[in-house]
Amino acid sequence: MRTKIKIKKHTPLTDKELLRFNKHILLDDIDVEGQALLKEKHVVLIGLGGLGSPIAYYLASSGIGQITLVDDDTIDVTNLQRQILYSMDDLDKKKVDIAKIKMQKLNSDMKINAISERLASNSDVNYLHDVDLIIDATDNFKTRSLINKISLDNRIPLIMGAAIQFSGQIIVFRNDLTDQPCYNCLYENVSESNACVDSGVFAALTGVVGSMQASECIKILLDIGERLESRLLTIDLKNNDFRIIKLNKDKQCKVCDDK
């Protein structure tokens, strides 16, 4: 059964937007009200690599009103195998700068904030004060754990994705709600020796995982459909094996036990 969007007064869509987002508006689950709601949403995307590239494109094309991009990396030739935001002309340039340019070419009406920094425990995260959702598209466990804590501290939903070799994972953590599992309920004290950055990755896998993260983002913002909230989707793209595992809160979790 379709979840109805709670209708309230939104900034009306312009004639250009009504035409641009016509295929969304034709969907009963989105309609004009849902598209107007997306225009008011602010999403933070952390990581602009293989996962962040399709996420950035689809959020821009879908009409999200404001996106904050966070990444400190520069573009290397080895990125081009899977990071579809970039081309040979972009080598040695900052990812956030090029991503902002490419996204604004796709949707010039959206607001994009580019933050070129590596997230750390002492980072200034004041940009989260009006954020509706965080998407983690990073590639190491230390950063993911930090993002999880930031999400919990600020009571913001979190979508995480991972891609390594032919295997991917997507999960939604409702860190804005009480008594829900967090990232550290799933992974605790994981060795960095298995980090994605040190392993091969099938190029198309990052497109699959990133696209699904973007899909979950829009579904959460509009409160529609079945979502991967506290459910881990595992993907084996080599063998076309997709599975969902229900995650329960760890009552002894050191990160969210008092949240």
Structure, explained:
By secondary structure, the chain is an alpha/beta fold. It has a single domain (15-246), classed as NAD(P)-binding Rossmann-like Domain (Rossmann fold). The chain has 8 helices and 8 strands. The chain has helices spanning 15-20, 22-25, 31-39, 52-62, 95-106, 141-154, 183-186, 203-222; strands spanning 42-46, 66-70, 111-115, 133-136, 158-164, 167-173, 231-236, 241-246. Helix 4 links the parallel strand 1 (42-46) and strand 2 (66-70). It is globular. Residues 1-7 have low confidence and may be disordered.
CATH second-level architecture: 3-Layer(aba) Sandwich
Number of domains: 1
Based on helices, strands and strand pairing, what is the structural class?
alpha/beta
- Number of DSSP helical runs: 8
- Proportion of residues in extended strands: 15-25%
Sequence of secondary-structure elements = HHHEHEHEEHEEHHEE
Overall average pLDDT = 91
Main sheet strand line-up = 3-2-1-4-5-6-7-8
Based on Cα principal axes, name the global outline. globular
Roughly how much helix do the residues carry, as a percent range? 25-40%
